[in-house]
Amino acid sequence: MVQRKGSTRVSEDAEELVRVPLQAILLADSFAQKFRPITLERPKVLLPLVNVPMIDYTLAWLESAGIEEVFVFCCAHSKQVINYLENSHWVSLPHFEVTTIESHNSVSAGDALRLIYERHVIHGDFVLITGDTVSNMSLTQALQEHKDRRKKDNNAVMTMVIKRSKPSLITHQSRLGTDELFMAIDPHTKQLLYYEDKADHLKGTLSLEKMLLADNPSISLHNDKQDCYIDICSPEVLSIFTDNFDYQHLRRHFIKGLLVDDVCFAHFCYFEINSGV
């Protein structure tokens, strides 16, 4: 349970009561239009990468990382995704269960997570990921850090995976395209203090509140980090989305909204992987 003002913290260790399988929520819909008109007829997760649908790379990584249950949320072109998975080898693997959740009314990641919350299928910490993620990183250390942190701080509801962007030898840019990210973090506690996508600020300038600097003597400012969009979440993340129907986008609304929330004490931490991973 996330602590709010006026409440007392309740410490629980669910693993001591019952073993909960490691779960994942895979969003098969990006709720974006970047790949149109290609995605007008086929979902992005089924687009081929080296002749293999992208969702296969994501599922293969989750299976190799020790995930036992995956809930694939399908919205746009849901029948194509469901038919593909039902006729794939993923449904017959031992110790790796893939279940689809279909919705025709969800228009955002927030809607998807609220619907999953209503289904009561998530029973412990889970990995939140999109179906077009290609990765080979090991989740072991990130999962352990998240669990250890939760035992000490029940309000640390999510651990974001980030990596340092290597600058190009030619352009000296730390990343390509418009994905400009500015973060303020506490290097000692690994807590995320500020998150801003510069795409939201066309003026090219950012302003930090004085209290952010005053309340955090150890603060590190970065514009050389890349958000991997791989999150390790506690079940409270789903309930927070349910309590806040204005939260639609995972970063723009959820992350940035809670960072300035004076009522909910929930906060985010990060796990940084090597640039070569």
From TrEMBL:
<dbReference type="InterPro" id="IPR051956">
    <property type="entry name" value="eIF2B_epsilon"/>
</dbReference>
<dbReference type="InterPro" id="IPR035543">
    <property type="entry name" value="eIF-2B_epsilon_N"/>
</dbReference>
<dbReference type="Pfam" id="PF00483">
    <property type="entry name" value="NTP_transferase"/>
</dbReference>
<dbReference type="InterPro" id="IPR005835">
    <property type="entry name" value="NTP_transferase_dom"/>
</dbReference>
<feature type="domain" description="Nucleotidyl transferase">
    <location>
        <begin position="24"/>
        <end position="165"/>
    </location>
</feature>
<protein>
    <recommendedName>
        <fullName>Nucleotidyl transferase domain-containing protein</fullName>
    </recommendedName>
</protein>
<dbReference type="InterPro" id="IPR029044">
    <property type="entry name" value="Nucleotide-diphossugar_trans"/>
</dbReference>
